[in-house]
Amino acid sequence: MRKKIVAGNWKMNKTASEAAALIQGIKKEVAGIAKVDVVVCPPFTDLKDAAAACAGSNVALGAQNVHWEASGAFTGEISAAMLKDLGVTYVIVGHSERRQYFGETDETVNKRTKAALAAGLTPIVCVGETLAERDGGMMEEVVVRQTKEGLSGLGDDLAKVVIAYEPVWAIGTGRTASPAQAQEVHALIRRTLAELSNGDVANSIRIQYGGSMKPENAGELMGQPDIDGGLIGGAALKAESFAAIIKAGV
Ligand code: PGA
């Protein structure tokens, strides 16, 4: 049985003090929930205060990106060890906004994923097609390629990753994939994982859905056999709506 995991991707929102306040609100709402793993992913500048706010609670801390090198002349970048030292345990890798606006490729997703795993962080690796790719009949090819190339060469560590299927056309648009549409792609990703490893590993890996998930649709989405939680953007910025999604996964 896979344990559900709901993560908030705050994107470029909230100052450090706002982050601490939001986490206090989330903690109150989700205290005692053990059936769902809860993760918040604030911006880098919030992480220290966010770690203090999360301490001793059932809310885990994630970052939104990580560089693949351990240290050196990489102005503006953040290493896995730096995240780990702050108490971060998860990191989002390959979000579609990074692919779209910041030149992220399957190759760099793969490097970041390996660096995260080597440091003992759990990567949340994002895959998903654009609307043009879906309309052009390319969804399957794109999702399989991103999954295979993003996760290539991980060996036994493959079992430690979390995957987020986020159709780009559903992110921040209010347009959610239907539960059946999402389930179809989640099953495709799981079959692809079985090709990369074996059926047992593929069955143990958690695959989140992301893209306009909200309290009203979370229960039905997470009720699908291969949907193991959510990666939440907009609805994660308020304690009540984020908690309502988490409770829908219990
Ligand atoms: P959204 O974002 O929930 O606002 O659509 C999800 C994401 O980008 O991770």
Structure description:
With 250 residues, the protein is an alpha/beta fold. It has a single domain (4-248), classed as Alpha-Beta Barrel (TIM Barrel). It is 43% helix and 16% strand. It contains eleven helices and eight strands. It has helices at 16-30, 47-54, 80-85, 96-101, 106-118, 131-135, 139-150, 179-196, 199-204, 215-222, 239-248; strands at 4-9, 36-41, 59-63, 90-93, 122-127, 162-165, 206-210, 229-232. It has an eight-stranded parallel beta barrel, surrounded by seven helices. Strand 2, helix 2 and strand 3 (59-63) form a beta-alpha-beta unit. Helix 1 packs parallel to helix 11 (239-248). The protein is globular, with a radius of gyration of 17 Å. 2-phosphoglycolic acid (PGA) binds at residues 9, 166, 171-172, 210-213, 231-235. 2-phosphoglycolic acid binds next to strand 8.
